[in-house]
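User:
Can I borrow your eye for a moment on a structure tokenisation matter? Would you put together a sequence-and-structure record for a protein of your own picking? Please set it down just below, with no commentary around it:
AI:
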Amino acid sequence: MALKIDYALTCQKLRSKIDRLFELSAVKILSLQKSWRPNEGSPVFTVKGKYTCRGWTEWTQGFQFGSALVQFDASGDAKFLEIGRRGTLETMAAHVSHVGVHDHGFNNISTYGNLWRLMREKKIPFDPWEKNFYELALKTSGAIQAARWTKTDDGKGFIYSFNGPHSLFVDTLRSLRSLAVAHQLGHALMAECDQKISLLQRLLDHAELTARFNIYYETGRDIYDERGRTAHESIFNPINGRFRCPSTQQGYSPFSTWMRGLAWALLGYSEQLEFLRFLCSSGKLRRLPDLFTKAATATADFYLAHCCTDGIPMWDTGAPGLRRLGDYLEKPADPFNRIEPVDSSAAAIAAQGLLRFGNFLTAKGTRRTASVIGRQV
């Protein structure tokens, strides 16, 4: 048994902790806004408590200004709206037209998408030209993301990572939001000879390939085939589209599970199941792909089995120092241990994924037992 589930918890009981979270985040957002210089790039990770950049990709720029917009949404404090709106206007245009990354969902849905949502929810004044500006950015972002396409030998394909046409990252599942929103806005990717390419179909194909090759189901695929574990990266031959092998960029090895990648998969499939269920209910899609539910279920089970009792995992299931930590899954995560890092970001991502997937199953009338811990989820 790993995570200890408190079935008496309610949203109301968490109110004081949530309020405290936004109190702390307000201070940190304002501090970063004051100290950060946009010409330094995006704040990616901390060194001695202060953010610094990592030049190989600017995938966190949208979080910087998107966090301010979420803070405004939660608090109503207009200065955070100004930070998010101004940062989006002055900084994010390059991300909309960025042809070299797989991170459009992270950057552009967090900024243009949140502003568009706030206007639609009447939380900020309606302005038709401002609305058109956000929608144009979202349409363009979705199409450019979908254009990073490698065809596979089964006639489908995937959005390839910044590593190149051979590389399928598990975390790109969360960038599918850019395709979903652009599709809902009536947009498509236009190719040679005015070929109109469906963003929805590319979303479905990418999610299917990820479920088939980046997630394991204990079907005898190889000796590392543990149900629910994920490979951060899958390598394909870009000439003929055939799968070659698993790999990783941020995990310990291709044969262990980088827990943040697992969390992205859990959240990504839960989010897409919500979206596709809406399309089914509106008659725009015939049925939900069963494979997506299978992938979400497997990754949820694996996460619950491989995090500490407080829900926070270590950074990778194969991290070499874990053996020195003893029965680390039988106690709360210790962020001050000097052997291996814990991953609170994976915990935050997985928490949203578990909540979304639980709500999805409840809406379907599905009630099941998590096989890995023998408790209802």
